[in-house]
From TrEMBL:
Keywords: Hydrolase. Residues 47-118 form the Acyl-CoA thioesterase-like N-terminal HotDog domain. Pfam families: 4HBT_3, 4HBT_3C. InterPro entries: ACOT8-like_C (IPR049450), Acyl-CoA_hotdog (IPR042171), Acyl_CoA_thio (IPR003703), HotDog_dom_sf (IPR029069), TesB_ACOT8-like_N (IPR049449). This is Acyl-CoA thioesterase 2. The lineage of its organism: Bacteria, Bacillati, Actinomycetota, Actinomycetes, Mycobacteriales.
Amino acid sequence: MVDDPHAGAGPAGPPWSQGELLRLMDVQSCGAGHYVAPAHGPTVRNVVEAGQMLGDAIVAAAKEVPRQRVVSASMIFTRVAAHDAPLDVDVEVLHSGRTYSTAQVRIRQHDTLRCAGTVLLDAGAPDLIRSAAPMPRVEPPEKLASLDIPGTEVDGRDMRVAGDGYSPDPGHVGPPELFVWTRYRDAPEAGHLHAALLAQSCAHWTVAAALRPHPGFGESMAHSAISTGITMATITFHDDADVTQWLLYSTRVVYAGRGHAQSEGRVHAADGRLMASYSVHAMVRAFRSADTAARTRAGTVL
């Protein structure tokens, strides 16, 4: 996957698994408003995924305001973070109310800001009205093969792409959208950990979908021949999801140009309920000439 850095995990780092994802996102309190996310360890591509830091923010806010559930989280990723050092997650509750609370989250590494954003929390209420966008009509997961890309497997996670939509091949073209079924083997103990795992996957597909309509550009070129990365992600949770059940991520890129790509997405349960919606902004551009020269000297550009 374009936006999943699990490829090339080094032998010194733990293997990628559902348990490891939860360990990294289940941030631990280290004082008032301060949490720490542990390091994963050495990897070939030493870059923490945006979805993982979004999950960190969701868990930290949920622990800081335990009487309410996270409704929405939005983060801007200003600088990359590395897998081989822990992350400091600071939560400032800007407003604490009986109905809604608002928290600001900043994630730092080595005293340098990596990303920041806001989280909205809600005390909950019964339906007054209810309606939702319908689930797209795609093949059910039972009729699809698991997406097994060497180096990106996560033990305990199963992903299946509908419509033969995903391929790293630059010659494989199609509309700027991807439909991906995802489920996890084991149920997390807390609702905010279900939410974190759900959010972690929402940033995976925007770059791949943006490249689909353009012959000569494919996922295999990311981070080597073209510069890509997630710069902003927002997710809103509608119903409480169970990540051990199949969830359909529908990602459609609504704009690509000027070095940017913007997607809109929805997460539906297999029974058609809308569980969450999200938007992702990504960078998709050529390397600057100075960057290309440096990468060529380092032997990373063919």
